[in-house]
Design goal:
The structure holds two protein chains of two kinds. By secondary structure, chain A is an all-alpha fold. Chain A has one domain. In chain A, about 70% of the residues lie in helices and about 0% in strands. Chain A is globular. By secondary structure, chain B is an alpha+beta fold. Chain B has one domain: Orthogonal Bundle (Cytochrome-c3 Hydrogenase, chain B). Chain B has 16 helices and eight strands. Chain B has a three-stranded antiparallel β-sheet with strand order 1-2-3. In chain B, strands 6-7-8 form a three-stranded antiparallel β-sheet. Chain B is globular. The chains are: A mainly alpha, B alpha+beta. At the A-B interface, α7, α10 and α13 of A face β1, α5, α6, α8 and α15 of B.
Chain lengths: ~350, ~400
């Protein structure tokens, strides 16, 4: 759509409005899709049950129904809560999610804003959610929320580092920080002597890919890194006191971010919107489909782990980040750098 | 005993000292966290009041009694056959196993013995109740430690056992099947072959969970060395069942106590583990479920023919006297002390249920642990609220 817009040379304000509308439409769609496909259906089938079946065929509309239900619920604010902070926290989490989508390209011209420090921007805005989580935990005036928020802060800081370090390998290989540039860098190269197939960075950066997956799992506070919302310990962690549409915001933030991080992983390691043999306007048309397919593949891995593993303890979680992930990420950077210089 | 009190005193002094030091250095305040009575982790209405320093537990207190139903008193106004309905609801996940010690105590007073077929079926349902109960624990514990999926597998496969219990007794959860001098009715047609298939399936379930949960490195890290109960501490607090066997105490009432039930005729093993931590408790229970399926198989093969009911008077009156019978129930030692004065119902009845003693070790156990460990320890001690509060 944006490609068409660009072709007709719309005025700047109209282009901006269209971009905003697209982003506003895409994020809830992504969150709904991931929530339905993975949280509801895949988890159910892995656990030998059917999941929602009644709302629409195979329960497709279940999350829509849930959304409507959330909107009807009373918007509760605890008596002791810090009202403004309590109300702002879910918005802040959601803003971080929305900003992530700005730099993810879905085609050669299908990108909201191709920043030349794209990946840097994405990782930076993804950490804004920590502030929202801390605000939520502190403002709720609830001990479980507070414990959850402090755990979240510790965890997100610890796992931001391997996330950034894992990406550096790709940046070294591509020679650019722009996500569009990284996709273009993966267009060329040969796989086992076959030209024109492109060279997704997962072939050379497998370690980086796995690190990125683990770190984004922690960023998303999903099992095995779901200490901040540990259901059996902290009730619902920092979300305990939230109800109605504010809870919905957290939910959308979580799944929207899951989709965004999966899309970024797909862009960095699997070639993003690029599929061999398609260039130009055709790539703009099928690019989004390719990207969503790849994104779903990555998200499948993330959710598979989520439904399989138990939860770490806080100290084990920190030890895992600092003792294993970060040294491995540093070694990965070193080796990538040496090879880049050598060849 | 002295070792315990010394250790407790030392631990107390140490926590007090560290608390004082931290308070002086950082000016921190302790936080009191109220876990329960409505909390997703305590599967029921147990309340743990924990005093926290950061995430470390300085002091913990267990409050129970939110579900007290006064069963000991209620037995006094009921006849013996009516009492089984009540005691079905003590440990509601293995109801049949509750009936057995009570009926045995009444039989002991009346000096009658059920025929061999009835004894075999009793023992069999006792072990099937163990499978249904502990089978659920195997998934439940994983759920408390954070893995969702094994809990659903446990619920799925427990259903097969419950179906068999329901087919024979008519009750899925509360069979009310045991009678003084025998059983309510004989097994239905085709039940034996079906149960053999179910037991095979349950062994596969145990193998699956051994790989999925016990073999998971995160699960091991969460459970190994967490909530260690030394053997002498466990004994001092009256911890029983798999909890004490996981501390290396080779003590099983099924083997060590003479009983009219047929455990003595079977070829089986008492599993113990030297560590005494949460992982050991999980592991011992896993082995016990597998052992129980093998025991049920043996009993199905050796099931004698004959009547299922001994001759008892139409109106059951128990002669005056006192009797104490305890068995090794799924949750631990369960005993009934019945005082009869020759009436239709018990004059006094003291119920010794396993979970009450098992959770009484918690304040000792929780001191110095972290918040996530509270949940692991609560889950691995495995109590049923009905069994604590009666």
């Amino acid at each position: 759509m944006i490609a068409l817009v660009a072709a007709v040379h719309m005025p700047y304000w109209l282009e901006t409005v269209i971009k905003v509308v697209v982003v506003l439409g895409v994020i809830p769609m992504m969150a709904l899709m991931l929530g339905y496909v993975f949280l509801m259906k895949m988890m159910s089938h892995m656990q030998s049950r059917l999941g929602p079946m009644d709302a629409g065929p195979h329960g497709v509309l279940q999350l829509v129904a849930d959304g409507v239900k959330f909107l009807q619920k009373e918007d509760l604010t605890p008596a002791n809560a810090d009202k403004w902070v309590f109300a702002l926290a879910p918005l802040l989490v959601l803003i971080s999610t929305f900003l992530l989508y700005v730099v993810v390209p879905a085609g050669p011209r299908l990108v909201v804003q191709d920043l030349n420090t794209g990946i840097f921007f994405a990782l930076a805005v993804s950490s804004i959610s920590v502030i929202g989580v801390l605000m939520a935990g502190w403002a709720s005036a609830n001990k479980y929320s507070l414990l959850g928020a402090l755990r979240a802060a510790g965890q997100l800081i610890a796992y931001e580092l391997p996330l950034v370090l894992a990406v550096i390998g790709v940046v070294i290989q591509a020679g650019t920080m722009s996500l569009q540039g990284i996709v273009h860098a993966q267009e060329h190269g040969a796989v086992f002597g076959f030209d024109n197939l492109g060279e997704p960075f997962i072939l050379t950066q497998l370690v980086g890919f796995l690190l990125f997956l683990m770190a984004s799992q922690a960023e998303l506070t999903q099992t095995p890194f779901d200490m901040p919302v540990a259901e059996s310990e902290l009730v619902a962690g920092y979300m305990t006191e939230y109800s109605g549409f504010r809870f919905l915001f957290f939910f959308m933030g979580e799944f929207g971010t899951a989709a965004a991080l999966s899309a970024i992983a797909a862009t960095l390691y699997l070639g993003g919107w690029y599929v061999p043999g398609v260039h130009g306007t055709a790539a703009d048309v099928i690019g989004p489909i390719v990207l969503i397919t790849k994104m779903m593949l990555v998200a499948f891995l993330i959710f598979w782990v989520r439904f399989t593993y138990p939860r770490f303890r806080e100290d084990q979680l920190q030890a895992f980040a600092w003792k294993y992930l970060i040294p491995i990420a540093l070694a990965n950077i070193l080796i990538t750098g040496l090879l880049k210089v050598a060849f | 005993m002295t070792a315990v009190t010394d250790r407790q005193r030392m631990a107390y002094i140490a926590t007090q000292a560290s608390e004082a030091r931290v308070n002086v250095e950082l000016q921190t305040e302790d936080m009191t966290l109220n876990l329960g009575p409505q909390h997703p982790a305590t599967h029921g209405t147990l309340r743990v009041v924990a005093k926290l320093n950061g995430e470390q537990v300085i002091d913990a207190d267990v409050v129970c009694g939110y579900m007290h139903r006064g069963y000991e008193k209620l037995t006094e106004v009921r006849t013996y056959p009516q009492v089984t309905t009540l005691i079905n609801r003590i440990d509601w996940l293995s109801s049949f196993a509750n009936e057995v010690p009570f009926i045995l105590a009444a039989e002991k007073l009346m000096d009658i013995e059920a025929p061999p077929r009835a004894q075999y079926i009793r023992t069999m349902f006792f072990e099937m109740a163990r499978i249904a109960n502990i089978g659920l624990f195997l998934g439940e514990m994983a759920l408390q430690v954070g893995a969702l999926t094994p809990a659903f597998y446990a619920f799925r496969d427990r259903e097969f056992v419950l179906n068999q219990i329901e087919a024979a007794t008519g009750g899925r959860f509360h069979p009310n099947y045991d009678r003084i001098g025998g059983l309510k009715e004989d097994l239905p047609k085709g039940w034996v072959a079906e149960t053999q298939a179910v037991m095979k399936r349950l062994r596969e379930f145990c193998d699956e969970l051994e790989g999925l949960v016990a073999g998971n490195v995160i699960f091991e890290n969460r459970c190994r060395g967490v909530g260690v109960i030394p053997a002498e501490v466990g004994k001092a607090y009256g911890v029983s069942g798999a909890n004490i066997r996981a501390s290396g105490v080779d003590w099983d009432l099924r083997r060590d106590e003479p009983s009219p039930l047929v455990w003595k005729d079977l070829d089986w093993k008492v599993w113990t583990h030297p560590d005494g931590d949460s992982f050991a408790r999980y592991w011992v229970r896993l082995q016990e479920v597998r052992e129980a399926t093998l025991m049920v198989d043996q009993m199905l093969e050796g099931l004698p023919a004959g009547p299922i009911q001994a001759k008892v008077p139409r109106i059951i009156k128990v002669p005056a006297g006192e009797a104490w019978v305890h068995t090794d129930n799924p949750l631990g030692e369960m005993g009934f002390y019945i005082v009869s004065q020759g009436g239709l119902g018990p004059f006094r009845c003291k119920i010794r249920s396993a979970s009450f003693n098992n959770v009484s070790v918690l304040p000792w156990l929780l001191r110095g642990t972290y918040v996530p460990d509270i949940i692991t320890i609560l889950a691995s001690l495995y109590f049923i609220l009905g069994d604590i509060d009666r």
